[in-house]
Amino acid sequence: MFYAFLASLPILVVAVFLVGLRWPASRAMPLSLVTAAVLALFVWHVPGWQVLAFGIKGSLIAFDLLYIIFGAILLLNTLQQSGAITVIRNGFRQISPDRRVQAIIVAWLFGSFIEGAAGFGTPAAVAVPLLVALGFPPLAAVVCGIVIQSTPVSFGALGTPILVGVGNGLDVAAGFGVDSAVQSAAVSWKLIADKNVAATELLHTIGVRVAALHLVVGTFVPLILVCLLTRFFGRNQSLRDGLGCWKFAIFAAFAMTIPSVATAILFGPEFPSLFGGMVGLVVVATAARRGFLIPAGEPWQFPGKEDWSADWRPVVADSAASAEAVPDVANVAQDCPPLSLFRSWLPYLMLAVLLVAFRLPQLPVKAWVNHPNVTFAVTDLFESPAALKHTPLALPGTIFLLVSGLTFVLHGMSVKGYRIAVANSFRTTAKASVALIFTVPMVQIFLGSDGGAAGLSAMPIVLAEQMATLAGDAWPLLAPFVGGLGAFVAGSNTISNMMLSMFQFGVGQQIGTDPFWIVALQAVGGAAGNTICVHNVVAASAVVGLVGREGQIIRRTLPVFLYYATFAGILGLIIVTIFS
After folding, report:
1. Which residues is 377 bridged to in the sheet?
2. Contacts within 8 Å (CB) and 24+ apart, 377-385
3. Nearest of 312, 273, 205 to residue 493 by alpha carbon
4. Cα–Cα distance between 482 and 468 in angstroms, integer?
5. Residue 352 and residue 336: Cα distance in Å, rounded?
């Protein structure tokens, strides 16, 4: 119990100072970093070189995140300078002027599609600035972008959290998890002799269970999204205004989740979020244009900009997606030719196509961008377990830069306008760097704290084991919370699954239930944990100039995580009780 409490201290520091005392991440995260490092060195007795190695690894990951942020901001600024944002904004208003409808279409559906294509926080970098360009307060746009980082995340980046996270976490390629499962669970692949085939079937089975859980729990995410908008950003600050959109919200939820489940069953874990988001976007946008289930009465709007709280506005005046900058887009775009709706959307279409092309193993692009000649890799930095791998061409940031350059040509922009876009993007990205260079190294030291002279497991494992001891047979209730905790710390559903799937599998066996339902609950909780992940919030905030407001955002998204993990846990407990 004592070591579990100590292991929780880096997280408690974040909760107290960032969320409770409203410190900006640039001040709270250095304190959390120091806490994790002190614990690793003097309690876990991890060698100093190992702590340094994981700190360096975290710094490299932070650089990758900043690269993605810069690319996203540059694409947005490019579209503003060309005048495309104005055309896109008017196109959405033609679908529906109701801000609730716009939030569902852009954040929930378009965001789910981008999550399925790229993952790793990319939807926030794409959808959040688009919402601000439509006239959303920046704080409201970030909340929308973070809230939807739940249901589609399990199948983000073409199924990476399942294929890579759970697959490596259970070591299924080596047959370890498969052999154990054959003895403990009656599933379709138990008679398959080829372990590689069995591993594929195993991940397919887990993916279907994850999709089924998301189908139930994720049904209410669009409704929660609009209720948060109306409660915190409406004139009346009323939940009733959000509930008035319930028919459209539930329709939009099923338009995404039902195709997602069908895809998981038919094709496996690579495409559920991609196809679900794409199908849902087409179906819901078409229905909304025809007025299907659109709430009656006056379209719901935000208060006038003069009535916006100072907290809703960008911290910096030169923010790329500042709400004040949007009305000026027409002026800065005077040197560009008029754009059609198709040409305005073409950069986002190219972005989606390239994100998929860079991920599909069937296409040569993935091999090119991951070629050893363009990859920096170190397997044992300072003779520690820390491994570095840097593939800059494979990052979404490269795709953002490429699409931005193509937009410059396709939209006939002036060199002056593009230079302004680049300069503003550098200034905005710099604001996020302070928080991220402390956040990500803290995470890596926390995760890499095993192997010390004290003989303790890594801090997150020590914490999870204590929770399992206390929970006993009620563990399915807590399994999603542990997955969410892993994502909160690691900033990734994939890493959470990789780190905790075997632990969750073992607990499932100990309590005498199908362990793969427990692993599925882990994956669902890990997806929900992205709604409170600090460096995801920092990255999304930076795109719209809200650096320093991370605590405010997490306080608004924390109830979403609690809902998701609690509902999934209750559902999981019912399922394993019935099947046991």
Report:
1. 389
2. 381/53, 381/56, 381/57, 382/49, 382/50, 382/52, 382/53, 383/49, 384/47, 384/49, 384/50, 384/53, 384/54, 384/448, 385/50, 385/448, 385/450, 385/451
3. 273
4. 9
5. 24
Three-state DSSP at 90 gives helix
pTM: 0.78
- Scored b (16 or more CB within 10 A) or e, 324-363 reads ebbeebeebbeebeebeeebbbbbbebbbebbbbbbeeee
Instruction: Give yes or no for a contact between 154 and 113, defined as CB atoms under 8 angstroms apart.
Output: no
The CA distance from 55 to 283, in Å, is 46
Query: Is residue 378 classed as helix, strand or coil in its secondary structure?
Result: strand
Tokens of 512: 């005498």
Q: What is each CA distance from 255 to 113, 146, 273, 275, 364, in whole angstroms?
A: 12, 20, 12, 11, 32
Q: Which residues pair with 148 in a beta bridge?
A: none
Asked if residue 323 lies in contact with residue 137, where contact means CB atoms within 8 angstroms, the answer is: yes
What one-letter code names the amino acid at 131?
Answer: L
Q: Which residues pair with 378 in a beta bridge?
A: 388
| Digit-coded pLDDT (tens) for 38-92 | 999 999 999 999 999 989 988 888 888 788 778 877 887 888 888 887 887 788 7
- Residue-wise pLDDT for 154-206, tens only, equals 998 778 889 878 887 776 544 444 454 544 443 443 434 444 556 678 889 99
